[in-house]
């Protein structure tokens, strides 16, 4: 028989709380260095003043915040960003929900094949997918040509809010589908069978059984798509053609084009505030659902 080594008198085994602290310490340090410190610097820059030539005057001032909240252009910019993100999220939900529900009910190799099709767009860069939409929606592209072939006048689809809306919806649909699938775990097929056995119509079964059980997945998908839409830069910049002004594109213009880092930092903090409001709304929805 092998002897069990005795614990030395000078060393005590680590308790559960100490083990938890030791395991969480590395990721906590990474978050502090990679996230908290940059956010702190952004907040500090938002109270500084920009100088000519892209410099930053290290003085405390509310000039950026008062100018931002008192300028109708930036107020309209905030409203446009929120409403576009909400609209894109709603369209992504409407288009993704039937796909996610069908995937949840599928089985075997067919489900695996469909899941790969859903995930495959995420393996392509957003820049490549955006340029693909530019080619599809261009003036001589297949969509406009098909509309003209039916004898109709095509609406403007490029370098305006329509193109941004279409591009963002398609790009965010895989995220919405995956989030919905993650929230469909409580959807038991036997519950649907019981509803049909009790005489429920397909619409009643969907409204009173399927929709309430999948509501957590809907909330998660809406949160994810809304946050990604608000922070999206590539698609609005390319498909908007410089004519669609959103928070992400304005942050880029202020930081890179005009070299106004304090104002860009103020807008970035404002985006974080919008993210926080979305998280609060998500938490409230989950509590109500529970």
Q: How would you describe this structure to a colleague?
A:
There is one protein chain. This protein has helices spanning 16-45, 63-70, 72-105, 108-119, 126-137, 142-149, 161-183, 189-197, 202-231, 234-240, 247-257, 261-289; strands spanning 49-50, 56-57. By secondary structure, the protein is mostly helical. It is built from 12 helices and 2 strands. It has a domain at 73-126 and 170-289: Orthogonal Bundle (MetI-like fold), CATH 1.10.3720.10. Strand 1 and strand 2 (56-57) form a beta hairpin. The protein has a two-stranded antiparallel sheet with strand order 1-2. The relative contact order is 0.12. The radius of gyration is 25 Å and the shape is globular. It is a multi-pass membrane protein. Belongs to the binding-protein-dependent transport system permease family. CysTW subfamily. Its main location: membrane.
SSE topology sketch:
Layout: H1 16-45, E1 49-50, E2 56-57, H2 63-70, H3 72-105, H4 108-119, H5 126-137, H6 142-149, H7 161-183, H8 189-197, H9 202-231, H10 234-240, H11 247-257, H12 261-289
Antiparallel strand pairs: 1-2
Features:
mainly alpha, 290 residues, MetI-like_sf, MetI-like, MetI-like fold, two-stranded antiparallel ribbon, membrane, 2 strands, transmembrane
Q: Span between N and C termini?
A: 54 Å
Task: Please provide the count of β strands.
Answer: 2
What is the tally of helical segments? Answer: 12
Sheet with the most strands, sense and barrel status: 2 strands, antiparallel
Helical fraction:
over 70%
Look at the structure and give the CATH class of the domain at 73-126 and 170-289: Mainly Alpha
Could you say what the CATH architecture of the domain at 73-126 and 170-289 is?
Orthogonal Bundle
**Oligomer kind:** single chain
Shape: globular
Helix-and-strand structural type: mainly alpha
CATH topology title of the domain at 73-126 and 170-289: MetI-like fold
**For the CA atoms, what is the radius of gyration?**
25 Å
H/E series: HEEHHHHHHHHHHH
Q: Looking at this structure, what is the CATH superfamily of the domain at 73-126 and 170-289?
A: MetI-like
**Whole-number mean pLDDT:** 88
Proportion in β-strands:
under 5%
**Uncertain residue segments:** none
In the sheet with the most strands, the strands line up as 1-2
InterPro entries: MetI-like (IPR000515), MetI-like_sf (IPR035906)
Transmembrane segments: 20-40, 73-101, 113-137, 157-181, 209-234, 267-286
Family: Belongs to the binding-protein-dependent transport system permease family. CysTW subfamily.
Keywords: Cell membrane, Membrane, Transmembrane, Transmembrane helix, Transport
């Amino acid at each position: 028989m092998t002897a069990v080594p005795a614990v030395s008198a000078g060393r005590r085994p680590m308790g559960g709380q100490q083990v938890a602290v030791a395991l969480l310490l590395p990721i906590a340090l990474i978050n502090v260095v990679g996230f908290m410190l940059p956010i702190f610097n952004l907040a500090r820059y938002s109270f500084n003043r920009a100088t000519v030539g892209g410099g930053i005057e290290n003085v405390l001032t509310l000039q950026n915040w008062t100018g931002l909240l008192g300028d109708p252009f930036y107020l309209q910019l905030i409203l446009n960003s929120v409403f576009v993100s909400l609209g894109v999220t709603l369209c992504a939900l409407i288009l993704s929900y039937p796909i996610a529900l069908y995937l949840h009910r599928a089985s075997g190799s067919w489900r695996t094949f469909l899941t790969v099709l859903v995930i495959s767009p995420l393996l392509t860069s957003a820049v490549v997918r955006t340029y693909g939409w530019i080619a599809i929606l261009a003036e001589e592209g297949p969509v406009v040509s098909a509309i003209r072939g039916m004898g109709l006048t095509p609406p403007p689809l490029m370098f305006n809010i329509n193109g941004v809306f279409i591009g963002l919806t398609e790009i965010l649909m895989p995220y919405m589908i995956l989030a919905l699938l993650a929230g469909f775990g409580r959807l038991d097929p036997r519950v649907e069978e019981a509803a049909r056995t009790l005489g429920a119509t397909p619409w009643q079964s969907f409204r009173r059984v399927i929709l309430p059980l999948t509501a957590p997945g809907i909330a998660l998908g809406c949160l994810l798509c809304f946050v990604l839409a608000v922070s999206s830069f590539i698609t609005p910049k390319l498909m908007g053609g410089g004519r669609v002004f959103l928070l992400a594109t304005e942050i880029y213009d202020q930081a890179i084009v005009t070299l106004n880092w304090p104002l860009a930092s103020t807008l970035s903090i404002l985006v974080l505030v919008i993210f926080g409001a979305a998280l609060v709304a998500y938490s409230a929805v989950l509590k109500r659902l529970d």
